[in-house]
Design a protein that fits this description.
The protein contains 10 helices and 5 strands; from the N terminus they run H-H-E-H-H-E-H-E-H-H-E-E-H-H-H. By secondary structure, the protein is an alpha/beta fold.
Length: about 220
């Protein structure tokens, strides 16, 4: 299968998945969406009410805010791949449970492998912890780091700024640097991809003859 077919197969499996108890209450699984060759992948926490209704990620108020944030970072929604660490809505929008994260892990791993993005923007602490464990999001948001040759950019979840208006300016400021960070990632990738030039070995002059060393 090519990459597009792989993502389609993942989406089919997500919509039919019964690996954890979330499938009992879901209306629609939400595998994610975006171009297969996206350089940027955004990973949130889990679908909300509207996402569960439509089967698409970030289509509620947090999704509208995310579109605005992407624009501040010089990107369009159509250019990025958006998904979540869990693909079905946790009841009442509660935090995902460890067994739910584990059940969806293979789907997310395969999406990352197939798309192979230059950068991953984590939205919220559960997404962040998958790549940068044992830290607080309040300490590392907006501070990109390289993890296994991929740029990981931890961000607050857009919904956090909607629930806590005091965070809105912080979230907007973080996203405003997105284009700058991606430029840095491009430069590093180009350097790593550049072929290594062999060292030039000086040639001996044709009239130069090897000298035999005397034993005495």
């Amino acid at each position: 299968m090519d990459a597009t077919e792989v993502l389609q197969e993942i989406a089919r499996q997500v919509r039919e998945c019964n690996k954890c108890s979330l499938h009992f209450s879901r209306k629609n699984g939400v595998p994610g969406e975006g171009p297969v060759n996206a350089e940027v992948m955004l990973i949130g926490e889990g679908p909300g009410f509207y996402e569960n209704e439509q089967g698409r990620p970030f289509v509620g108020s947090a999704g509208k805010f995310l579109d605005e944030l992407l624009e501040k970072g010089g990107l369009k929604r159509s250019e990025v791949f958006i998904t979540n660490v869990v693909k079905c809505r946790p009841p009442g929008n509660r935090d995902p449970m460890p067994e739910e994260l584990s059940a969806c892990n293979d789907y997310l791993e395969e999406q990352i492998r197939t798309i192979n993005p230059l950068a991953i923007v984590t939205l919220g602490r559960f997404s962040m912890a998958r790549f940068i464990p044992n830290v607080r999001i309040s300490d590392v948001h907006g501070k990109p780091r390289w993890v296994k040759d991929r740029l990981i950019i931890p961000m607050y979840h857009p919904a956090a700024a909607l629930h806590q208006p005091s965070l809105k300016t912080t979230v907007e400021r973080d996203f405003a640097h997105l284009a700058e960070w991606l430029d840095q990632a491009h430069r590093k990738r180009d350097v790593q991809a550049a072929p290594v030039q062999p060292l030039a070995v000086p040639e001996k002059p044709e009239d130069e003859k090897p000298t035999q060393l005397s034993l005495f």
